[in-house]
């Protein structure tokens, strides 16, 4: 059942994205009155003092800045000489800031050495995300316990207990059980189940697919009963980079004893100058409960290396899109009406997050959706990648993408007073970083008070619109935390567009396995304040000044 909501919502977001003439981002630049975090930054970064902690060292002017190789013409000249602040303040009082990541050719204020000493990144050598982190003051580490930011390989599905080692102050780039959508067999089964529940029309963006060896009889029956001559593409369950993929005109050619996906080949792809291509769309999931999904406007177009022809289906160079090419996608438009909004449930992933993680702060994930357009410009979702290639061949897309990912997920300065984190640093370490700049664990508490639990149960059981509209009448501390977290996150989105939740969220709630309180809360908040966001922020700002958001 995992990730069903994600796939459908991401698909409809993709349709809206490439059908629009342009993306109009919500103006979230207004900042209501709040504690002057900018002044706090100056104190902590340039010439810091603190009555609680004593003076801090000023950063060394010789501190090296590692840069990601880039092409200067790719970024606007006017941005090159602007010095960005080291921290991004919250829109609300008494909420810690997040670390501000910048493009490779941009300058940023260096954090104080004692702050930088807390920032460790565990990543692959020569990785773009690693170097972006080094640029703003992170140090690399090979110690799997001491990292603040993890940007390496995913945990295998059979090793999910490793998530138990992720501390509440660590940011991990993968969500537990995301293989449910990343493995082709599990993706297929999820979509087939949802099609049975909600009707096949809602899920007609996925080609007819069978799983071998379990579905060999259904495959045989489908082939014998059809009057059309089908071409099949055979794929191993969980391989990547086109390994093991082949095409055949006879279903019998597929090895029925091998674990493989047998998928009907889309015979009429949209062509560019005679070449077949597909689209790589990047989708970021920042939270499971509530579900928050963002889509990136820049992606890749992957072309086959030979011109398309159905005369020889065994020519993989004409049928497999194994070359990646940058694209701005201006030429491709799909009417939104061609596909209704779809969601693809998150039950298993939500359960895994609650079972294996100590804090919802700890995980996020960037997915790569592969989408094919047919001759009628209908989109077909081919597969979803949990570990998309983000190499240096396409820095024009991948560098700003990863910069926006790192800002969007909101990486905070660890609070050394946390016993678990302090034990990882060593017994002699003492914090000299002002507490208002570091993570406040009260904002990420997952245990509900009895009053909050009662409210959750009431609104997930009383779904009439009249009752649902009252969910905002008396905001609990837990409600305030979730709302400011969501609004602050959206304010850091860069080029990303949030596609869930949104003004039309109500259409998609029926695709969830069961109602989720936080999804209902955000739906009602957006419905009430979408056209007057400043009024909504003012309400939350007033509550934050009263410290409502950090109450138990």
Strand and helix map with partners:
Blueprint lengths: L3 H16 L17 H9 L37 E2 L2 E2 L9 E2 L7 E2 L4 H4 L3 E4 L4 H8 L3 E2 L8 E3 L19 E2 L6 H4 L1 H15 L10 E4 L3 H10 L6 E5 L9 E3 L11 E5 L6 E2 L2 E13 L4 E4 L3 E5 L12 H4 L3 E5 L19 H10 L8 E9 L5 E7 L9 H14 L10 H7 L24 H12 L3 H4 L8 H15 L5 E4 L16 H13 L3 H13 L7
Parallel strand pairs: 1-4, 5-6, 5-7, 7-8
Antiparallel strand pairs: 2-3, 9-12, 10-11, 10-12, 13-14, 14-15, 14-16, 14-18, 15-20, 16-17, 18-19
Describe the structure.
About 30% of the residues lie in helices and about 15% in strands. It is α+β, with helices and mostly antiparallel strands and about 550 residues long. Among the domains are: about 45-180 and about 410-435, no CATH class; about 445-550, no CATH class. Strands 13, 14, 15, 16, 17, 18, 19 and 20 form an 8-stranded antiparallel β-sheet that branches. A 4-stranded parallel β-sheet has the order 6-5-7-8, covered by helices on one side. A 4-stranded antiparallel β-sheet has the order 9-12-10-11, sandwiched between helices. Helix 14 (about 475-490) crosses helix 15 (about 515-530) and helix 14 crosses helix 16 (about 535-545). GO terms for molecular function: ATP binding; tubulin binding; tubulin-glutamic acid ligase activity. Keywords: ATP-binding, Ligase, Nucleotide-binding, Signal.
Poorly predicted spans: 11-74, 314-320, 322-345
Report the C-alpha radius of gyration, rounded.
24 Å
- The total count of helices amounts to 16
The chain-level mean pLDDT equals: 77
Helix proportion? 25-40%
Strand content: 15-25%
- Which word captures the global form? globular
Structural class, by secondary structure, is alpha+beta
Signal peptide: 1-20
Keywords: ATP-binding, Ligase, Nucleotide-binding, Signal
GO molecular function, one term: ATP binding
Organism: Lingula anatina
